[in-house]
Write a structure and sequence with these properties.
Elements: H1 2-30, H2 36-58, H3 61-87, H4 92-104, E1 110-112, E2 136-138, E3 148-150, E4 168-173, H5 176-179, H6 189-197, E5 201-203, H7 211-221, E6 226-234, H8 238-245, H9 249-256, H10 268-284, H11 289-293, H12 296-302, H13 314-337, E7 341-347
Parallel strand pairs: 1-2, 4-5, 4-6, 6-7
Antiparallel strand pairs: 2-3
């Protein structure tokens, strides 16, 4: 115990200082202060640990022993719970991993849905807007089963033959509603619209998408044979998603440079390789040490994020609303220049603030 009394406080101080320096670098240098809301809890926690180490150092022997026992107990209990969440508790993602591993033994053309928002925080040479092409995509589970769909040549939720039609009646852009997340064909919006209209429909939607990705999708895949663009705005989370999108350098290029393009329709093999590498890393690894250290499962389960639509500050709200107006205008102009009709479809939120009221 005497040895522990001597080294505990210095080690705690050094480790917390190193982690605090790393978090500060990520927050203020790497992300240029754009993700302060995300990193602030980590900074506050590490400052508290720093203060605790100083308090332990300055305390008398008896108080020091109590503080060490209490802090070690909290530390061990926290990571035991994280271990439980990592290895034993079966959440949806872990079940998805099991479904993926089972199905890949039967069919190698099985993939997993990876939302474009997953690429917000990485500096890859390309920013995908879709999934792996020509594969069975395991999507999500909201109805007691994992929905699946066969992706088209560009990784979207469409029958591939739709791209070969000389005339496309409807092009859908949007988030999970447009994509048809968590339901199988023919219950997704695209399939229903095909059945009702007996016309060709293409769908560029994906869960987690926001207005800037909608516009990027139009810039990359809007063809001259498309008659109508249905721009589906979900007030429940699109405003929040836009705030995230405005922090991505690649997506901002679509907004600020009308000539910018990634030429995604010619880079599908590169997109497939990138997404497959991410899937292989996540779904085939048994244990993610970084996720464990940063208590990812605990933070996900205990500190569930509240609806940020209600907590966006006035400055960010004004910026996002201004940019949203610009994005809608640009999308409309792009459709007009393509001789397509542009329809803004507004899905209001049942609860919370509706930004157009």
């Amino acid at each position: 115990m005497k040895f522990l009394l001597r080294i505990y406080s210095p080690i705690l101080f050094i480790l917390s200082f190193i982690l605090l320096s790393y978090i500060y670098y990520k927050s203020q240098i790497y992300w240029e202060g754009k993700k302060n809301d995300f990193y602030l809890p980590f900074i506050i926690f590490l400052l508290m640990v720093n203060f605790l180490s100083i308090l332990i150092f300055l305390s008398n022997k008896k108080v020091k022993e109590y503080l060490i026992i209490c802090s070690l107990s909290i530390f061990v209990t926290t990571y035991l719970f994280e271990g439980y969440l990592s290895f034993y508790k079966k959440d949806k993602n872990q079940s998805k991993r099991e479904v993926y591993k089972k199905l890949t033994k039967q069919n190698k053309d099985i993939s997993v849905s990876v939302a474009p928002l997953s690429f917000f925080y990485f500096n890859y040479s390309i920013f995908p807007l879709s999934n792996v092409s020509n594969s069975i995509i395991i999507d999500c589970n909201e109805n007691g089963y994992y929905s699946m769909y066969e992706s088209d040549r560009y990784g979207f939720n469409n029958p591939d033959k739709e791209w070969d039609n000389k005339e496309i009646e409807f092009l859908l852009v949007g988030d999970s509603y447009a994509q048809g997340a968590c339901v199988n064909r023919p219950n997704d919006i695209g399939s229903v619209l095909r059945d009702l209209s007996n016309k060709s429909v293409l769908n560029l939607g994906h869960n987690g998408n926001g207005p800037l990705i909608y516009y990027a999708g139009l810039r990359e895949f809007l063809n001259s044979n498309i008659k109508n663009v249905l721009w589906i705005f979900n007030n429940g989370n699109d405003f929040e998603n836009l705030n995230e999108e405005l922090n991505n350098k690649t997506l901002l290029k679509y907004l600020n440079d009308l000539s910018f393009t990634q030429n995604l329709n010619s880079k599908q093999p590169e997109i497939d390789n990138l997404i497959n590498s991410i899937i292989n890393k996540y779904y085939n690894e048994y244990f993610n040490i970084r996720s464990f250290i940063f208590l990812s499962n605990l933070r996900k389960d205990v500190f569930k994020q509240k609806n940020q639509v209600m907590t966006i500050n006035a400055k960010h709200e004004l910026i996002a609303l201004t940019q949203l107006t610009k994005i809608i205008q640009l999308s409309n102009n792009l459709a007009i220049s393509n001789n397509s009709k542009f329809y803004f479809v507004y899905l209001p939120e049942k609860k919370g603030v509706n930004i157009f009221t």
